[in-house]
Amino acid sequence: MKLIKAIVKPHMLDNVKEALNGLGISGMTTYEVKGFGRQKGHHELYRGAEYQIDFVPKIMLETVVPDEIVAQAIGVISEAAKTGKIGDGKIFVLDIIEAVRIRTGETGNDSI
């Protein structure tokens, strides 16, 4: 099993969710996060004054998938979140040693 963490633009979340649902992945956790990479934030105008915004709003989503569909999940997330502009996001993949469904006690792939 792998944990996929994807950081995407907020308005792309619905696209990513639908793409993952199409792959049969229905469980995920999302967080509202802020950060920056190469884009280094942006400028905003407020009451005539210009401000540098260093941390840009993003969404981080996490989902655990079986090893067999990791590449497919990465592909659909990439396609669904891509705008072609700087700041589209990143995807990280981490190993999961074990998973347990608390309600039933199921473990491993059965728990996801």
From TrEMBL:
Return one GO MF term. Answer: ATP binding
The name this protein goes by in its record: Nitrogen regulatory protein P-II family
Q: Provide the taxonomic classification.
A: Bacteria, Pseudomonadati, Deferribacterota, Deferribacteres, Deferribacterales
Q: Which domain of life is it from?
A: Bacteria
Does the keyword section mention Phosphoprotein?
Answer: yes
Q: Which Gene3D superfamilies match?
A: 3.30.70.120
Instruction: Please name the SMART domains in this protein's record.
Output: P-II
Stretch forming the signal peptide: none
Q: Which family does it belong to?
A: Belongs to the P(II) protein family.
InterPro entries tied to this protein = N-reg_PII (IPR002187), N-reg_PII-like_a/b (IPR011322), N-reg_PII/ATP_PRibTrfase_C (IPR015867), N-reg_PII_CS (IPR017918), N-reg_PII_urydylation_site (IPR002332)
A Pfam family matched in the record = P-II
User: What UniProt keywords apply to this chain's record, in alphabetical order?
Assistant: Nucleotide-binding, Phosphoprotein, Transcription, Transcription regulation
Keyword Phosphoprotein applies: yes
What does the subunit comment say?
Homotrimer.
